[in-house]
Design brief:
elongated; 3 helices; mainly alpha; 79 residues
Amino acid sequence: MIGCTIARIAEHFHCSRDVIERRFRWEIEEGKSTAEIRLKGKVFQAALDGNMRALELCLVNMCGWTLRPDVSAGFFRGR
């Protein structure tokens, strides 16, 4: 849930990465999912509280907005 890699977890418990993936696949996926939901909730709440950077993140990631300026190709008309 805190973002450790499977390799780091295996190293901590002195076992192979395969053992962690095989025995704890569900727990690892559950932890990733829980962390993502909590983080999105925190960013969303910060946006509602007026944090402009959090609002920007929500608009880009949740609403499909872009930070790139809209560049329209127009025709140049000389004199």
